[in-house]
Predict the structure.
Amino acid sequence: MTGDKVVLVMVGLPARGKTHIARRLARYLSFFHAVKVEVFNVGEYRRKFCGNFVPAEFFNHDDERSVALRRQCSAAAMEDMKRYIGEEGDARVAIFDATNTTRTRRSWVIRQLKELRIKVIFIEVMCEDEKLIDENIRAVKLNLPDYAGMDPEQAVEDFKRRIKQYEKVYESIDVVVERNLSWMKIVDCRRFTINNIRGFLPGRIVQFLMNLHTTPQDIYMSRHGQSEYNLLGKIGGDSGLTPDGEEFARQLADFAETKIMRNADGQPVAARLWTSSLKRTIDTAQFIPHPVIKVAWENDDVQGELQDWIQMRQKQWTNLDELYAGVCDGMTYKEIEADYPDEFARRQADKLAYRYPRGESYLDMMHRLEPMIHEIERIREPVMIIGHQGVLRVIYAFYMGLPREQAPYVSIPLNTVVKLSPHTYGCSEERSNLMPNFSSRPDGQKEPPPFGSQSQSFDFMEPPSH
Amino acid sequence: MTGDKVVLVMVGLPARGKTHIARRLARYLSFFHAVKVEVFNVGEYRRKFCGNFVPAEFFNHDDERSVALRRQCSAAAMEDMKRYIGEEGDARVAIFDATNTTRTRRSWVIRQLKELRIKVIFIEVMCEDEKLIDENIRAVKLNLPDYAGMDPEQAVEDFKRRIKQYEKVYESIDVVVERNLSWMKIVDCRRFTINNIRGFLPGRIVQFLMNLHTTPQDIYMSRHGQSEYNLLGKIGGDSGLTPDGEEFARQLADFAETKIMRNADGQPVAARLWTSSLKRTIDTAQFIPHPVIKVAWENDDVQGELQDWIQMRQKQWTNLDELYAGVCDGMTYKEIEADYPDEFARRQADKLAYRYPRGESYLDMMHRLEPMIHEIERIREPVMIIGHQGVLRVIYAFYMGLPREQAPYVSIPLNTVVKLSPHTYGCSEERSNLMPNFSSRPDGQKEPPPFGSQSQSFDFMEPPSH
């Protein structure tokens, strides 16, 4: 029974953000929906078969030899994909990441997958805004192995010639002729047409893609300053900050003002400020100013004409509240171990799925954090999230490409701002300890060894090994 | 702070299904998302001001007097809507249900709402398929007070003349000129264009609308036959059927074959068969045949060319599993009362929110039933759901327009098929007791007084009292 399997087929000229969309979507499906998904990027097969650098002329659709070679790369990727989605029982989603810009090509894809009786959904990515294309070439394509060691301007020129070759034969998905296919068109990440796509998982995919954009965006996150409960080693509750915690709040305001709310030129930048609904995060945000900044958001959600000025918007989300420990709320880990030894052992055995009596599990929390990820993807501005250890672990693990099982063990120390910069091929990270002299940390949590060092980056550039 | 409020503005010619979509959406948002929502239907204001029957000429856009009168109706609806969404603190969504078919009209709506700084999303409903329009006129419009007591054919003619008046001035939302607005176009409930819509609640709205269709569809539901645990008065577990339960399974198969899988002419009809993942529902479905029926689904999710034959498709959903009672699973209510008196009292006090230790609450269960509602809305065929008391209560309460707080008290007796036929203005219900002589029912549940009689219908036709 393959009825629930889906093959997503990317369509579009180069530098439209297809790979970015494919990879981010794959990450989202596997982390939040525990869906097995793989991306088959034809470009990686080309690099494997033909070497890293091939000139733009290689993409000339009149040159028979290179057309044949490129066909061969597609065919190899297709064969691997068919094996994966058809034969691996738990495989749910495959993404065929290539240009597929002609109708003939798309018919070929359908014929290939017909015998497997798997749902095929085309995702066409288009840009009406030339600026976006240029940005995408510079941000992503220049880092490809294709252009290693080449002069950037020369590389941009080469890449634009490559695009021109594709433009000659490009046929956008036709609303009439291809009306019986299932497809989604994404124009400038702001207009979407969805044709004949139904079902639960496809619905989640469409919803996620409607929030996605390709503009680079930084995510800053920090736990609240030290709380009274931290000091007593108690978990949960809704206590206020200690003097140390308040000191951190002041340091954080300074950090936000100088590092987040200004760009490299010192110009004010609109940003978002999110806290949970608990006192200790709201108090940690108290000194961060909310200036009114003039902005012109072309693509924002408010009607264009209404919006001229924007504030550093502060928002409290119950979704960001700490994992609720139910009957254990307000206890120390020692007390839990003594009073509920069974619970304690159960939690040790499976920290991800363990649900506190009348409380939550990490999986429950992930469920309420999923909409937050949609929200982070949706906004264009940098965002500062003042949260709690548990929730930040999940957000961190999602962006840093960790398997969901590792999420409950991520180290998110107090007094530290973690800056995440997700990009097409992974995410880079920078940690700033704002109170290096702070030492007393009897908050009852045994700190696991941190993943990596102070500043690291996660990269899943390698083509999957098929 | 009104940032999270949304006004949805319907756009489209008469008989496109605007009101159906508006009402079903409102029901979904209030029941599953606890969002306060109201529909402002300008047609209802017209009927209030001008009486039930006005001839098609009333809708002539050249007749100054009737244009002025219709303006007055819109203005009154708009004023009420502004008061509701602007002043009622917990109001989240308002739906302005009118034709709004000209650009001038849509600008007026935006100007009206500008001062409130509320997000406005237009929802345009279009039909390329004339058949759908005809069906909609006959199914919905002939039941309007406008046509009470009139000859149906004459009424259809009148309604078509009314549509013609609107067609003269109709301007569909323009992809270029109106590109800065937020809008969604729905064509034949199969192609959707979404422009500039972002955010969590708008995303859920778009997803729900993408599953909705206007084809009438029946939902049959039944609890599993009597299980061994029922007989012992125990809750939960995964026991098999008693001999009585098996007898019900045979009766149900007969019912399905004669009443669900054949239309009024005795022709075979494709249908869906859903059970939970628990033994007692799967066993209850065991005698229902799965014939292969030739169908041509124009709008189904499988690629058109692949699909010729369809089976009465049986699917097992964990989403349909009974409310999980955690540590109380397998106990009788008496035992729970004796062993966990606090729990028992807490459950009595708030049955909707009460969560069993390491188990679920009704709210938890509603959360996993939400995707099932999307799924029911999505499919076009009749569906037979063999489930459990708790899950069926929620589905029933949703379709019958009950407040979520009443869901845990709905009566869903054993051995009974409940047929729900939702329509634009409510839902009608028909109950068939397949084992009228079955009496022993010591399943430990105190049966609450049932809502209404054996066969009833729920109707929310009345205009809201503003």
The domain at 219-459 of chain B is CATH 3.40.50.1240 (Rossmann fold). The longest helix of chain B spans residues 64-87. Chain B has 14 helices and 15 strands. The mean pLDDT of chain B is 86.
